[in-house]
């Protein structure tokens, strides 16, 4: 990356849920997949940038960020040098009949390239 500056080239967002079980990681993984399905990285070929040189930052928003397995989230991205963090956000929808909330997660994926 000598002589090149890291520049943000993509910001993609997605949402995902876990309707039963309150699994924040499952909701986060679904949010990441939703975001990925909105993107095509054809510009990497056009710019002749190897996918391994991408810097990928994932931010997950859920009501209980400490319950997200960030290792699994990072591993779900197919390319690049990935970091993941979880922050307070998303939505929990309680079930008044039992302790089984529906969990909604938001994902923001930022891709930067050395250009």
TrEMBL record:
Coiled-coil ranges per UniProt: none
Record key words, sorted: GTP-binding, Nucleotide-binding
Stated name of the protein: Uncharacterized protein
Superkingdom assignment: Bacteria
Pfam families from the UniProt entry: Lin0512_fam
InterPro entries per UniProt: CHP02058, Tubulin/FtsZ-like_C
GO molecular function list: GTP binding
């Amino acid at each position: 990356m000598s002589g090149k500056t890291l520049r943000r080239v993509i910001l993609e967002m997605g949402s995902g849920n876990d309707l039963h079980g309150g699994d924040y990681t499952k909701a986060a993984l679904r949010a990441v997949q939703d975001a990925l399905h909105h993107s095509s990285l054809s510009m990497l070929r056009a710019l002749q940038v190897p996918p391994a040189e991408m810097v990928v930052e994932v931010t997950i928003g859920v009501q209980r960020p400490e319950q997200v397995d960030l290792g699994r989230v990072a591993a779900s991205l197919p390319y690049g040098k990935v970091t993941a963090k979880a922050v307070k956000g998303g939505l929990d929808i309680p079930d008044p009949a039992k302790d089984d909330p529906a969990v909604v997660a938001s994902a923001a994926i930022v891709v930067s390239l050395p250009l």
